[in-house]
Every structure is written in structure tokens, then in C-alpha cells.
Design a protein that fits this description.
By secondary structure, the chain is of the alpha/beta class. The chain is built from 10 helices and 9 strands.
């Protein structure tokens, strides 16, 4: 069994906020992730898990420090799992142009097929398979789980839930990249990670996946209407059209005055925890 090494521990709302490192088999590097264990978790009681996928440039720490989610996770008895957004290290390739939207810090939650990225950039398998197996084997956390995320991480959460609907009780997103095959961020990442074949891109595009869905995962999306990336990179209107055409049930809330920041996430994080708790604790 792969071991995890505790890096730090903080008491928080009568639970524990923990940071770990481990050697990842799928990403071929040392990976870091954080976990909030609510006070209800112990060796005799495993709690459900809610995975949060962060956006471009983020690490496992951004959401942990800025969102204020632990208070509500403690209330509901839910563990928060916060992975990094990409593999990292001196041996891990990065964007030569120092583009924040590609390379380290921008794994896009895909399994890369193109060199040199395919050796390390396998964040889809990491989030779907490797990390849950590791967590469930080492911590008092059950295999009952849901997933949510922000921006690039919102894209990852939607894609992962839509492709693995039997494994996740619910999914939500803040300001997600919903149609990456049509955006500058998505096109650069997908071309480099996946090659120039559209078929390989579509398996990571939420608009395409909802159009093919035969099962439905409870879904909530919040979007700020003052978001500077909404028109060019997020394309929420395309996702709305796709869900309506497919008759896919989803709650989409659009909020005047809010932008793409963690101030927006913090404003609605309690409602997202309440949403997921309905399904995780049922």
C-alpha cells in the first residue's frame, strides 16, 4: 500500500486540517494534497468525502485558506479533499512561455497522451482513482463521495462526475469552464496534452458529455455576472443550451456583481455544502 506522509496538522472547528505528500504512481512525482477531517471522523466512524478541484495557478492551499468551507463541513460531518492542480517538480515539464493557463498549476484534469506531458500529467486518473484509493485506505473516510470545483476545477468536477455518475452522489461548480474545446485556455491545453484529434478533446468537454448522458447526477452551478472570464473562457451559455437540449436537470444561478474570485466562492460556499450534504448523508 502506498504510504502518505503528514506535512502539517491544524485543529479547526474541532476537526483537523491536514496536509499530506505521497509519491504518485500515475503522475510519477511527489504530490501534495490537503484533507479536512470533521470532528465526527474517527477509527470507528468513517465520514463521506467532498472533493474540491481548484483552478488555474492554485495549489491544495487556496481553497483551504480562502473559502471558509471547513465550518460547514464540520457541521455536516463531511471530509473535504483538496488535491493540487497538477504534478510539480524539477523533472516535470512546464510551459516555456510561462503561461499560467498551461503546464504546472494547470493540469486541466485530463490524462495527457502527448509527449512530454503524458509521463506526469494524468490528473484525471489521479482524482478519479489514485487519490480516493489512497485516502480511503489511510484515513477514516468512506467511499461515499461528491465533487465540486472552481473555474478549471469546475470543468474537472463536471467532467469527472458526468463520466463517473455512479461514483459521485452530486456535483457542483463555481464559474466553471464548461466548453473548453471552444476556448483559448482549453484549446491550448488540449492540443498540447491530447493532440489535434477532436474526439480526444470531447471526452473532457461538459457540453459534449451532457448531450450524451443517460444518467443524471444532481448538479448545481453558481456564476458571477461580473466575471472577467465569462464571455471568452467559461461559455456558460453554451452549457445552458446543451443541458436544455438534452433535458439534463441542473440548477444554474447567476449573480449580479460577483467576479471570478474567492470572495465569490466564500459568499456561496455554505449553500454548496448544504447541497452536497443532502446526498452524502442520505
Amino acid at each position: 500500500m502506498t504510504t502518505i506522509t503528514e506535512v502539517s496538522s491544524q485543529k479547526l472547528f474541532d476537526g483537523q486540517h491536514l496536509q499530506f505528500q505521497h509519491q504518485s504512481a500515475v503522475n510519477n512525482c511527489l504530490m501534495t494534497f490537503s484533507v479536512y477531517l470533521p470532528p465526527q471522523a474517527n477509527k470507528d466512524h468513517k465520514v463521506p468525502a467532498l472533493y474540491f478541484l481548484s483552478g488555474l495557478t492554485c495549489t491544495d492551499e487556496n481553497f483551504a485558506v480562502k473559502a471558509g468551507a471547513q465550518r460547514f463541513a464540520a457541521k455536516h460531518g463531511i471530509a473535504l479533499i483538496m488535491p493540487d492542480t497538477s504534478p510539480r517538480g524539477e523533472d516535470v515539464p512546464d510551459d516555456l512561455e510561462d503561461d499560467y493557463a498551461f503546464g504546472q498549476g494547470a493540469g486541466f484534469y485530463v490524462n495527457a497522451t502527448q509527449k512530454p506531458w503524458n509521463k506526469h500529467f494524468n490528473m484525471y486518473d489521479y482524482v478519479v482513482s489514485e487519490l480516493p484509493s489512497l485516502i480511503e485506505a489511510n484515513l477514516p473516510i468512506s467511499d461515499v463521495k461528491s465533487i465540486f470545483g472552481h473555474s478549471m476545477g469546475g470543468h474537472g468536477a463536471l467532467v469527472i462526475a458526468l463520466r463517473n455518475c455512479n461514483n459521485y452522489r452530486s456535483v457542483s461548480a463555481f464559474s466553471p469552464v464548461t466548453n473548453p474545446v471552444e476556448t483559448p485556455w482549453g484549446q491550448k491545453a488540449f492540443f498540447n496534452y491530447l493532440g489535434d484529434h477532436l474526439n480526444s478533446w470531447q471526452q473532457y468537454d461538459s457540453c459534449e458529455l451532457v448531450s450524451q448522458a443517460t444518467q443524471h447526477v444532481p448538479m448545481l452551478i453558481d456564476q458571477g455576472l461580473d466575471d472577467q472570464f465569462l464571455a471568452e473562457e467559461l461559455l456558460l451559455e453554451n452549457f445552458i443550451a446543451a443541458t436544455e437540449q438534452a433535458n439534463y436537470p441542473v440548477t444554474i444561478r447567476q449573480h449580479e456583481g460577483y467576479n471570478h474570485s474567492y470572495f465569490f466562492i466564500a459568499s456561496f460556499i455554505e449553500q454548496h455544502l448544504d447541497f452536497h450534504a443532502k446526498y452524502l448523508n442520505s
